[in-house]
UniProtKB/TrEMBL annotation:
The keyword Kinase does not apply. InterPro entries: CBS_dom, CBS_dom_sf, Diverse_CBS-Domain. Keywords: CBS domain. It comes from the Bacteria. The lineage of its organism: Bacteria, Pseudomonadati, Pseudomonadota, Alphaproteobacteria, Hyphomicrobiales. It comes from Bradyrhizobium quebecense. The keyword Iron does not apply. SMART domains: CBS (SM00116). This is CBS domain-containing protein.
Amino acid sequence: MKVKDVMHKGVDWVSPDTPITEIAKLMQGHDVGCIPVGQDDRLIGMVTDRDLVCKGLASKDFNSTRTTARDVMTEGIHCCREDDDLAKAVHHMETLKIRRLPVINKSKRMVGMVSLGDIGHFAGADLMSQYMKGVSAHH
């Protein structure tokens, strides 16, 4: 099975200057737990629901009107290709201990996102069990 067979297609992304209140509304509206961050047509980071809470709401100097994606995002993007085998992508996610992975095409354009939920719906029990053990381990 290929990543393109299970991924969510057509992911939105935001600029680093996007207020986190807008990001939270995007997450709520699309029922997702992360939003990629891009600048100059390149992905530069990811804002997860956990980032919003731990690096935003829980920070000492939190200000909901001034805090932006740049302030809370996790920098450095790991991704996979849409034509990768799902097992390869799952192994990559397991190694990195991440629950979501952007998907790019041959032109290096983001075309989707593969998540824990996507894998749970389509992967075999052995692959899913292995992945859950790796991703769920404490960081």
